[in-house]
Amino acid sequence: MRILARQLTTYLSRGRGYPQNKLITTRIFSSFAPKDEIALEAEVERKVGWMLKAFYVASATFVGYQFFPYMGDNLLHQSISLMHVKDPLFKRMGASRISRFAVDDERRMRVVEMGGDKDLVEMLKFAKDDKTRKSALKALSALSNSEEAAGALHQAGAISVIKSTPVSLEDAALNTYKIKLLQRFQDLKYDDAQPDLS
After folding, report:
1. Are residues 11 and 104 in the same domain?
2. Gyration radius of the chain's alpha carbons
3. Which site among 6, 47, 107, 141 is 20 to 30 Å from 69 CA-CA?
4. What is the pLDDT along the chain (198 residues), one digit of tens a residue?
5. CB contact set of 65 (below 8 Å; sequence gap of 6+)
């Protein structure tokens, strides 16, 4: 950094038309002591460091604001695409991402617009293990917190699929999601949503 400060001083002094040897002469007869020069160089280093950090933060902020809005849709699209894979692990990963994405009405409706509600219903319908059923029910539960999304789930046939989901003897959370979803549909006055507690 001291080298950079010296080069900067040399460059600036040339720009003003001072000859190089005059700069050296003024340094010799200057009132600055070597300690003062070291302190000045340290201060310049500190200021240049802060300028570089500020530039880096500003650049990172700009890039973040340019790219992160697109990551939401891309991530959602990838999550919905994961539910089309035959492997139950990938289906569970897609459903888990959707349940974390669907935190407000706007995002829930975005999932519905991209067809995630129908894919979740199909995933639940053809699930062969409790882990996959639980992930699907959790995502459906997250979507059903919006009345519009719950209406779309009703139109996709979610109520009959949820009712036909077998009761799990091993996983109580699966049963809890099932009862909560049926209760939600009943609260929204969908006629065929009587909870089956057997």
Report:
1. no
2. 32
3. 141
4. 667 767 767 766 665 555 555 555 555 555 556 677 788 888 888 888 888 888 988 888 887 766 655 456 778 888 899 889 999 999 999 999 999 888 888 989 999 999 999 999 999 999 999 999 999 999 999 999 989 999 999 999 999 999 999 888 888 888 899 999 999 999 888 766 555 544
5. none
